[in-house]
Design brief:
homodimer; about 260 residues; alpha+beta; 60s Ribosomal Protein L30, Chain: A; CofE-like fold; 5-stranded mixed β-sheet; 3-stranded antiparallel β-sheet; globular
Chain lengths: ~260, ~260
């Protein structure tokens, strides 16, 4: 059994208020894909945020005193820093150009996941738009899953991903930020290996492994192929959420 | 174009001294796979270590005083801790049951990547064998690449992966520890997105994204499917090495 990741062709540019499930379903039909039970759609965060109207025009932001101080320390735009603070629950580290935060969604990431590329205002290319992460990616994924299961008649998974830097290693990798149906962590405890040893590594970050695979096929100019169709995911679908993947703060040696 | 990851069927259990390229090539032929330019083989670290004779019988290890102290602090077997020290260049963090190290190979990981599962001594199931990481995974990957290209007549990539825990997030994910042909980091600098913005995220950890995907298809009882055949990797093959993926210590905010 193979794992097959196919960029969904023909996804249009997404605008505020668009119904993503409708856009995806139309693209699926145009591409002649016959969906099967267990198929998964992986979506780039960017199109979910756009559909939800998470664009912010920086000219509308008035930075706080805290934001101005942090902007001085990091060399970043004070308005962007203000949005970083608003989107975060904690600042973990700073250095020139980078602020590492605990995002309000619970995960650690750089610059609060705020994206400056591929975000145009509607007909106002001069203005400085940035894109915040979706309000509640788990909820967005759940809604899309319900809608896509209804129109397709098969049991599906939906996952929303972003691309994050990492401690210790260079290069960004795709990670899950919203889950519906795709198990976040798969517990292999109790399984024996071929020699009868209990497996020591028992908790596999299956959703993040799939997110990395899908991210590879999105590239970074993600507007072109922001939806990946997945067949052959090796674990059963079930109810799931991002929280499975978040290491509790008190158990984290690198906070 | 799709990314297709297929566990290579029929790989035998690997023993010290086995020629992995021969085992893989035989399995490829038995499976009737017609290799193409750009195909990649991803190997679980475990089979490379086994072929290289990296099994160690814990009864042969005499722990140092430092190892005994660290064993007391972490509740780990002093002999295992001794191997952790021997395989590492630095201890970063410790807590009961876990030692986070900078491995001599340069990456940060838990317990020096030493594996206690799926490692049997030859006919001595009672003895306590553990498995160290390969001596030089880049070199092992390069050698395998050369051999497999010779027998197949096509241009291939080879990557050796392990499964690591992460700061901040739960669940292990596959990561690259040895590369040959597969680009570690892909630089997208200078590319514009659809709206003409320069992309801000410019360095994609492509090898680690592929490692995660392959790991998903190996599962954790990796002896069964320790080799994944990959078709459709979206970037050109080139000379590469693990070092591309290692964040320089002085630029790491989480050391």
């Amino acid at each position: 059994m193979a794992l097959i990741l196919t960029p969904l062709p023909g996804m249009p540019s997404v605008r505020v208020g668009d119904d993503l499930s409708e856009l995806i379903w139309q693209a699926v039909q145009r591409a002649g894909i016959s969906l099967q039970d267990g198929d998964i759609f992986v979506l780039a965060q960017k199109i979910v945020s756009k559909a939800e109207g998470r664009q912010v025009n920086l000219t509308s932001i008035v930075p706080s005193e805290e934001a101005r101080q942090l902007a001085l320390a990091t060399g970043k735009d004070p308005r962007l820093v203000e949005l970083n603070l608003q989107e975060s629950s904690e600042i973990l580290r700073t250095r020139p150009g980078t602020i590492i935060v605990e995002h309000r969604l619970g995960f650690v990431c750089a610059n609060a996941g705020i994206d400056h590329s591929n975000v145009a205002g509607e007909g106002n290319a001069d203005e400085e738009y940035v894109l915040l992460l979706p309000i509640n990616p788990d909820a967005s994924a759940r809604q899309l899953r319900t809608q896509l299961e209804q129109v397709s008649g098969v049991r599906l998974g939906v996952m929303i991903i972003d691309s994050h830097g990492r401690a210790w290693r260079l290069g960004t990798v795709g990670i899950a930020i919203g889950l519906a149906g795709v198990p976040g962590v798969v517990d292999l405890r109790g399984r024996n290996d071929l020699y009868g040893y209990q497996l020591r590594i028992t908790e596999v970050g299956a959703a993040d492994e799939l997110a990395a695979a899908a991210s590879l096929m999105m590239g970074q100019a993600a507007e072109g192929t922001p939806v990946i169709h997945v067949r052959g995911f090796p674990y059963p679908l079930r109810e799931s959420s991002l929280s499975e993947l978040l290491r509790p703060k008190q158990e984290d040696l690198f906070r």
